[in-house]
Amino acid sequence: MGVVRQVRIILEMIKFEHTIFALPFAVMSAFFAAGGWPEPRSLFWILVAMIGARSAAMAFNRLVDAEFDAENPRTARRAIPAGLISPRAVALFTAISSGLLVVAAWQLNPLALALSPLALVIVLGYSFTKRFTTLSHLWLGFSLSVAPMGAWIAIRGRFEPFPFLLVGIVLLWVAGFDIIYACQDVEFDRRKGLYSVPARLGVGPALALSAAFHAAMYALLWALPRFARGYGIHLGALYTAGVAVVGVLLLYEHLIVRPSDLSRVNAAFFTMNGLVSLLLMLVCVADVLW
After folding, report:
1. Nearest to 125 by CA among 114, 138, 112, 108
2. Per-residue pLDDT tens for 258-275?
3. Of 1, 2, 61, 142, which shows the fewest CB atoms inside 10 Å?
């Protein structure tokens, strides 16, 4: 099998387009940290680090979960269980992607480089969490919340309180929509002894908890401008309008998925949340620049 074809299969397998979830938060955090346009070189290496981290995490997840994917009718056609790609090739891709993150961190600053192994432990460690804890959804949220914190450190070279608010926003948002996505596999998870909120509580209570997470995330979005002012970041009318639209998108996401009808989970998972992240990035960057 040609290298180009193998790479194409892996990119399809890891749903490279789902980078849209965390990447916009890294970009907006970089603009916040810089107080305007970040240095192009720094922005480039932030993007490289994001791509490396996300690609490594997803490829590793497919590798670790290959046995479960083969037994689950919903995932049996994924590349590894279907025999389209070898585990060895996926392992090599994971190693290269992990190296890409480390190289990007090295190009940014010493703190970013020092923290890059920890970032890899966090994003790769998620793949094991469904084997021992129902908090796996929160771990996934934490994995993606590394993005805004990492971008802040990449620009400023230090920890500060403000990006922790962005971490909380991403963590709650991702955990909320991951619970919705997990509703598709309730029976399989129970049969295999895997941990998830829907498997433990049932679909109805799980969807209620997902809505609670998104309500908390939405409250933090409204609190963000007040905390931002202390860092010279002014979020005004554009941000307010954007957050109002985000509220509508989140509400719609929860209206189209019901315990009795999970047919629109993918629309809720990808379309709505892709729009949420892109919209927040656009209004935040626009307000910072204006």
Report:
1. 138
2. 888 888 887 767 778 889
3. 2
The residue segments making up the domain with residue 53 are 3-289
- The total number of structural domains in the chain stands at 1
The residue to which tokens 């916009």 are assigned:
24
CB-CB contact of 163 with 149 (8 Å): yes
135-185 confidence digits (pLDDT tens) = 999 999 999 999 999 999 999 999 999 999 999 999 999 999 999 999 999
Task: Name the pTM for this structure.
Answer: 0.94
- Reading the block at residue 177, the tokens are 């929509």
Q: Are 59 and 97 in contact (CB under 8 A)?
A: yes
Q: What is the CATH number of the domain that holds 8?
A: 1.10.357.140
Amino acid identity of 92? Answer: L
